[in-house]
Amino acid sequence: MTRDLPLPTTRLYFLDWVRILAFFALILYHTGMYYVSWDWHVKSPFAGTGPEPFMMMSSPWRLGLLFFIGGVAASLMLRRAGTAAFLGRRSIRLLVPLVFGMLVIVPPQPYFEVVEKLGYSDGYGAFMRLYLQAYNGFCREDCLILPTWNHLWFVAYLWIYTMLLGAGIALLGPRFDRIAARTGALLQGWKLVVLPAALLAAARIALVEHYPTNHSVVGDWTNHAMSFLPFVLGALVARVPGFWSRLAVLRWQALGVAAFGWTMFVMWDAVTHDVFTPAAVRVLRPFMVAAYAFMAWSAVVAACGFAQRHLDADGPARRYLNEAVFPVYILHQTLIVVLAHAMQPLRIAPGAEAVLLVVLTITLSFASFEVIRRVRVLRPLFGLAPQRPQGLKDAAQDGTGAGPVSSVRSSA
């Protein structure tokens, strides 16, 4: 039996857990990027196609899920705290870590990229001088854009979307809640899965061939469609009482659709050029693009539905991980790149090496968090709120930290 959660006084603990688990999945995914044939900053000598079907299991939906949760958090905090106050706090909590990350945390990633791909040998200090000068000479097929935000693009996009949402709510006023109510009335039963998936599919079919993902804001229209639409949908349904129990009812059906979509997607990737003629590929491609979008949204529904049914609980683990997850996110990809490059001369078997990378990344990330959360000057650099008395923490933190339902942590 599922439960409807009243708004806005009850915390949506299950969304905290979804977000925490999604970021742990991100560590696994970025570790996997070292071993697949797809381009990435550094590559294993053992890289190949074997792990790619498992990577495809999360790649269509993971970030859409996080943007969906981000929309929920931003919408409810805007209603609770007011537009100007919330957007000001959110800008500090997102932009300070973004700038710090681009200047301090991210640079080792492009450094080791040019070391491995271009044979750069002048050392990290010389590279940083070029990095800060926006040097444009590290080129192979394309030129490396410096400075870069790499995996922190999510933070930049979340800030942009939150500002747009704040402006939209300020302009619409009470009409936003009426739009949310109509959206909630429409998204019932099978329509909850089919209608958002169809919207995402239509956008992806129209855009994907013309606007490949670049994470550069400008011209990144396919990525915006697959990210901003879930964000806006999250902002709308956040204000619909009883919405979350609908996801729990549909969790198994949504999981089945997602599993079927993943199967079709993997088969398509495996046999496209061996079985189908170019003409057949052109005909079938829109259907597979649509299947990708249906898999993405169905997985979001399934994840939130299972979490609402089984993970709607608080405890010390949730409170600790909820605070830790943003600093861990900021640090994890740089740790993976640095550790992977350092381990290459050891020639460890790829399976054992991958396990070591994951364990070391998690261990060092949380060890760093233990330092960060205790040092006042470091906390804002990693998106943490100022330290408060223990009894006031949950009530005081805003939308990038823990807090009540209207402030589910969503900073990335």
UniProtKB/TrEMBL annotation:
Does Ligase show up as a keyword for this record? no
Q: Does the keyword Acyltransferase apply?
A: yes
Entry keyword set: Acyltransferase, Hydrolase, Membrane, Transferase, Transmembrane, Transmembrane helix
The entry's protein name is Peptidoglycan/LPS O-acetylase OafA/YrhL, contains acyltransferase and SGNH-hydrolase domains
Q: Which GO terms describe its molecular function?
A: acyltransferase activity, transferring groups other than amino-acyl groups; hydrolase activity
Checking PANTHER family in the record gives:
BLR4337 PROTEIN (PTHR36927), GLUCANS BIOSYNTHESIS PROTEIN C (PTHR36927:SF3)
Q: What are the residue boundaries of the Acyltransferase domain, all occurrences included?
A: 13-367
Q: Region labeled Disordered — which residues?
A: 390-412
Q: Where are the transmembrane segments?
A: 12-36, 61-79, 91-112, 154-173, 185-205, 225-242, 249-268, 288-308, 320-342, 354-372
The positions making up the signal sequence are: none
InterPro entries assigned to the protein according to its UniProt record, in alphabetical order: Acyl_transf_3_dom, Glucan_succinyl_AcylTrfase
